[in-house]
Design brief:
CATH class of the largest domain: Alpha Beta
Protein name: Aldehyde dehydrogenase (NAD+)
Number of strands: 23
GO molecular function, one term: aldehyde dehydrogenase (NAD+) activity
InterPro entries: Ald_DH/histidinol_DH, Ald_DH_C, Ald_DH_CS_CYS, Ald_DH_CS_GLU, Ald_DH_N, Aldehyde_DH_dom
EC number: 1.2.1.3
Structural class: alpha/beta
Number of helices: 17
CATH architecture of the largest domain: 3-Layer(aba) Sandwich
CATH superfamily of the largest domain: Aldehyde Dehydrogenase, Chain A, domain 1
Strand content: 15-25%
Largest sheet: 7 strands, mixed
Keywords: Oxidation, Oxidoreductase
CATH topology of the largest domain: Aldehyde Dehydrogenase, Chain A, domain 1
Radius of gyration: 24 Å
Strand order of the largest sheet: 15-16-17-14-13-19-20
C-alpha cells in the first residue's frame, strides 16, 4: 500500500515541500522490484517556485553578502554533518538504486572530503590587477558567480555525482536547483536536509523531483537558469545542449563512455585482470567510466581470458544490502531489458559468450533486476557491443598485436571519457597516456577518482571538467573593471 511507504519531500526555500499538484511517484528497490518509498511528482509550477527561491537567495545579502571565507566555513560545517549522516545516506541510496552497501559506505565516507576541498578553494579564486597599457587607468578583474545552476544527476551514483557539481558551485557563490533521476531521488532528498543544519541561508539549495518531460525540461528551459550541469546519457545531454544553445546557457555535460582497458603482454597480469574486473563488474557495469572494451595483446590473450572468467565466475550475486555481495542488480527494469538486448545483439554479431549472458535467480530476491556478469570474446571493434554503451555487467574482449593497433582500436570510438593501460614499460605508459583520446587515463589501476583530479570527457563523452581546481572555473565568470585616475578629457567619438 502506498500509504505505508516512506515519503521524501523536496527542499524549497529552506522547507520541505510536496509537489504543488499533490501527486507522488513510487521509488522501486532494484533488489526486489517493489516500491519502498514515494517522491513528489513535480511539474513546471514547482520548477518555477524552486528557481525563484534560488534566484532570491542568490541576490540576498544573507548569501551574496557573505565573504568567500564565510562560504568556505559553511561548507566545512556541512562536511562535518555529512560525515555524521554518511551511514544513513548510504543505506538509503542502496535501497534506491541497488548499489552495493560496501561501495556506498566507501563513497559516502569519502564524500565529505569533496566539500572540504572546495571549502578551502572558496577564497582562493582571485582576480588580477592588469598592467594596462592606457595611461592614468587602473584595471583589474573580478571572479564572480554565474547565478542559479541546474544540477541534473543520474541514478547510478546520485550523491557522488551531485558533489562534483554542488561543492564547487556553492564555493563559487552560486545557488542551485537539483533535479535527481526519478529512479533514484530519495538519497538526494535526505541529503539536502543537512544544509539547514549547517546554517546555509534558505533557498541556496533547492530540489525538484519527477519525470523528465514534466519537471526536467521546464528546469532546463527556465530563463533564470544560468548554467546546466548534467551527468547522464548521450540523448539527454544532446537535448539539454540544444535547449541551452537556444538561451545561450552555459553547460557542463558528462555523458557516455565506451572506455578501452588495454592490457599489454608485459603487464602484471594478476593486477591487470583484477583491474579488468573492477572496470566492468563493479557497480554492475553501471558507470560511465566502465572499462567495457578490454583490449588484450595476443600473446597473453588466452591467459587473460582464462583468468578473467575464473574470477568473474566466482562473483557473489545477491542482495546489495549485504556487505559480502559483489554484484548487485541493475537499477531499473527498463535498463535490464536494454542490457539483455545488447547481449542478444552481440551473439547475433558473431561474438562468443564465454561467461554469463542471462538472468540469474537470486534466492529470496526473485523479483530483483539482476544480470549475470557476461564476457564476450571474438569481438571486432565495429560490432555494436564494442561501439555502444551498454551500462551493465557486459565485457567485450578485443585482441591486438602491437601498440599502434591498440591505439587505433582504442581511439576508434565516438566516446572519450576514460581509458586504462596495463604495462611495466614506463615509456609505453607515457606514450599511451599522450595518444589515447580520453579525459582520464589510468596506468596500472582503474576506476580511481579524487576531488583533486579533473574529470570529464572528449568527443561525445561531454563538455567541461568536474573536480579539481578546474571545476571552480566552470562556475565563475570574469568581470573587467576600469577606473580612470584622472586622464585628460579625450575625443568622445574615438574608442579609448
Amino acid at each position: 500500500m502506498a500509504e505505508d511507504l516512506e515519503r521524501f519531500c523536496n527542499l524549497l526555500a529552506g522547507s520541505g515541500r510536496e509537489a504543488d499538484g499533490g501527486e507522488w511517484l513510487e521509488s522501486l528497490d532494484p533488489a526486489t522490484g517493489e516500491a519502498w518509498a514515494l517522491i513528489p511528482r513535480c511539474t513546471s509550477t514547482d520548477v518555477d517556485a524552486a528557481v525563484e527561491a534560488a534566484r532570491a537567495a542568490f541576490r540576498s545579502p544573507e548569501w551574496r553578502g557573505l565573504t568567500a571565507t564565510a562560504r568556505g566555513a559553511l561548507l566545512y560545517r556541512f562536511a562535518d554533518i555529512l560525515a555524521e549522516e554518511a551511514e544513513r545516506l548510504a543505506q538509503i541510496e542502496t535501497h534506491d538504486n541497488g548499489k552495493l552497501i560496501a561501495e556506498m559506505r566507501a563513497q559516502l565516507g569519502y564524500l565529505p572530503a569533496y566539500y572540504r576541498y572546495f571549502a578551502g578553494l572558496a577564497d582562493k579564486m582571485e582576480g588580477h590587477v592588469l598592467p594596462i597599457d592606457k595611461p592614468l587607468m587602473h584595471a583589474f578583474t573580478r571572479r564572480e558567480p554565474l547565478g542559479v545552476i541546474a544540477c541534473i544527476t543520474p541514478w547510478n551514483s546520485p550523491l557522488l555525482l551531485l558533489a562534483w557539481k554542488l561543492a564547487p558551485l556553492l564555493a563559487a557563490g552560486n545557488t542551485a536547483v537539483i533535479k535527481p533521476s526519478e529512479h533514484a531521488s530519495c538519497s538526494t532528498l535526505a541529503f539536502v536536509e543537512l544544509f539547514e543544519r549547517a546554517g546555509f541561508p534558505a533557498g541556496v539549495v533547492n530540489t525538484v523531483t519527477g519525470l523528465p518531460q514534466e519537471c526536467g525540461e521546464p528546469l532546463v528551459r527556465h530563463p533564470d537558469i544560468a548554467k546546466i550541469a548534467f551527468t547522464g546519457g548521450e540523448p539527454g545531454g544532446i537535448a539539454i545542449y540544444r535547449s541551452a544553445a537556444e538561451n545561450l546557457k552555459k553547460v557542463t555535460l558528462e555523458l557516455g563512455g565506451k572506455s578501452p582497458n588495454i592490457i599489454f603482454g608485459d603487464a602484471d597480469l594478476e593486477r591487470a585482470v583484477y583491474g579488468a574486473v573492477s572496470g566492468i563488474f563493479a557497480a554492475s557495469g553501471q558507470t560511465c567510466i566502465a572499462g567495457s572494451r578490454l583490449l588484450v595483446q595476443r600473446n597473453v590473450h588466452d591467459e587473460v581470458v582464462e583468468r578473467l572468467v575464473a574470477i568473474a565466475r566466482t562473483a557473489r550475486i545477491g542482495d546489495p544490502k549485504l556487505a559480502d555481495t559483489q554484484v548487485g542488480p541493475v537499477t531499473t527494469l527498463a535498463q535490464r531489458g536494454k542490457v539483455i538486448d545488447h547481449i542478444a545483439s552481440a551473439r547475433q554479431s558473431g561474438a562468443e559468450c564465454v561467461l554469463g549472458g542471462g538472468l540469474p535467480t537470486v534466492e529470496g530476491l526473485e523479483g530483483g533486476w539482476f544480470v549475470q556478469p557476461t564476457i564476450f570474446t571474438g569481438v571486432d571493434n565495429q560490432m555494436p557491443i564494442a561501439r555502444e554503451e551498454v551500462f551493465g555487467p557486459v565485457l567485450a574482449i578485443i585482441p591486438f598485436d602491437d601498440e599502434e593497433e591498440a591505439l587505433s582500436i582504442a581511439n576508434d570510438s565516438p566516446y572519450g571519457l576514460a581509458a586504462g593501460v596495463w604495462t611495466q614499460d614506463i615509456g609505453r605508459a607515457i606514450r599511451m597516456s599522450e595518444r589515447v583520446e580520453a579525459g582520464t587515463i589510468w596506468v596500472n589501476t582503474y576506476r580511481a577518482v579524487s576531488f583533486m583530479a579533473p574529470f570529464g570527457g572528449t568527443k561525445r563523452s561531454g563538455i567541461g571538467r568536474e573536480s579539481g581546481q578546474e571545476a571552480m572555473d566552470e562556475y565563475l565568470q570574469t568581470k573587467s573593471v576600469w577606473i580612470d585616475l584622472g586622464s585628460p578629457v579625450s575625443n568622445p567619438f574615438i574608442i579609448r
